[in-house]
């Protein structure tokens, strides 16, 4: 089981280009196919990983590994997700400066950028649907209101730290799902 965690997260680390958020679809597919978590739990892992200091990819691998196999699972998944990048960076640092101006290398990188944006957008749509849509109908109007407030704050105050937005969201969630539930 622990070796399986390592192999899965090594594969995720190896085939993800564009940072932690770009790996969400692959994490979702792998974790669901292995039965390590539900979609709801994956969304919780994403939220916790975003809220915790440190790189998203390391955080989510650590949390999923820990949830699955305690400390050894956390270590195994974390090592798996980090090792490919470490190896690739070592290799790139040896050769990149010789090829950075190569038109073919530039063409490949230019082609990867839109794919990264598309992958992140697809992840956002999947998360949105699992939080706000039930049986094909929009159902979570309170959550949509909280999302709208957070989006407006981020658009208005671009430099606002994500932790501030998370705290505001948590407070609004407490209010609207707690004392004010059903009032608004």
Automatic annotation (TrEMBL):
Keywords in alphabetical order: Cell membrane, Membrane, Transmembrane, Transmembrane helix
Pfam families assigned to the protein according to its UniProt record, in alphabetical order: Chromate_transp
Gene Ontology CC: one annotated term: plasma membrane
Predominant location: membrane
Membrane-protein topology: Multi-pass membrane protein
GO molecular function: chromate transmembrane transporter activity
Subcellular location: Cell membrane
Family under the similarity heading: Belongs to the chromate ion transporter (CHR) (TC 2.A.51) family.
Name assigned to this protein: Chromate transport protein
């Amino acid at each position: 089981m622990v070796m399986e965690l390592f192999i899965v997260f090594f594969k995720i680390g190896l085939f993800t280009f564009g940072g932690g958020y770009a790996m969400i679809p692959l994490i979702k597919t792998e974790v669901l196919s292995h039965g390590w978590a539900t979609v709801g739990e994956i969304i919780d892992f994403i939220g916790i990983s975003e809220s915790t200091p440190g790189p998203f990819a390391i955080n989510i691998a650590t949390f999923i590994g820990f949830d699955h196999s305690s400390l050894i699972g956390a270590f195994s998944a974390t090592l798996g997700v980090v090792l490919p990048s470490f190896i690739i960076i070592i290799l790139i640092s040896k050769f990149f400066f010789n090829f950075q101006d190569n038109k073919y290398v530039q063409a490949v990188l230019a082609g990867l950028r839109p794919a990264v944006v598309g992958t992140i957008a697809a992840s956002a749509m999947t998360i949105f649907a699992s939080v706000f849509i039930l049986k094909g109908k929009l159902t979570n109007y309170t959550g949509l209101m909280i999302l709208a407030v957070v989006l407006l704050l981020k658009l208005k105050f671009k430099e606002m730290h994500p932790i501030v937005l998370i705290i505001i969201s948590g407070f609004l969630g407490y209010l609207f799902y707690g004392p004010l539930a059903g009032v608004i």
